[in-house]
């Protein structure tokens, strides 16, 4: 009895794979991987700019778990769409500034690679901010209209 209930109930793995296939899940996973690659590139040359990649990777992983476990619908204290929007917008701005600084002060190949990947991360985080903008997601329904014949 317990085995049949366990197999029929949607589990954590099902929730993970269902969220993984959404556009937001793909974006968050791409952000985590890109931040990890940028962290590796910065660590190979200097650790001066690696804190941005670490913080953004951790925040993207936290939001991935929150959306995957459907906690954004269960915890209503925080406005999750606005939090995610500001997270991605600030990350895009910081990656743009950091990438420009790194590319202007080029010293070795790993820093140049990190700068170029930072520009790609700017585009990725900017696109994520664009699709998560809460006011863009609000849908307006058509107002009911009166019959053309007049009042009934």
UniProtKB/TrEMBL annotation:
Spans traversing the lipid bilayer: 26-45, 51-73, 85-104, 110-130
Keyword Transmembrane helix: yes
Keywords linked to the UniProt accession: Membrane, Transmembrane, Transmembrane helix
Membrane-related topology note: Multi-pass membrane protein
Pfam families (UniProt xref): MARVEL
Subcellular location: Membrane
GO CC, alphabetical: membrane
Name used for this protein in its record: Proteolipid protein 2
Gene that produces this protein: PLP2
């Amino acid at each position: 009895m317990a085995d049949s209930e366990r197999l029929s109930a949607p589990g954590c793995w099902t929730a993970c794979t269902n969220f993984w296939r959404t556009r937001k899940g793909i974006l968050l996973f791409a952000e985590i991987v890109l931040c990890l690659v940028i962290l590796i590139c910065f660590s190979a040359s200097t650790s001066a700019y690696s804190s941005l990649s670490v913080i953004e990777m951790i925040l993207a992983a936290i939001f991935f778990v929150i959306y995957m476990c459907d906690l954004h619908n269960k915890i209503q204290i925080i406005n999750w769409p606005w939090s995610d929007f500001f997270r991605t917008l600030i990350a895009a701005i910081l990656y743009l500034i950091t990438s420009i600084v790194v590319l202007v002060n080029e010293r070795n190949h790993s820093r140049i690679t990190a700068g170029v990947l930072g520009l790609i991360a700017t585009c990725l985080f900017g696109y994520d901010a664009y699709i998560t903008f809460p006011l863009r997601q609000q849908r307006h329904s058509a107002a009911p209209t009166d019959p053309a014949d007049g009042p009934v």
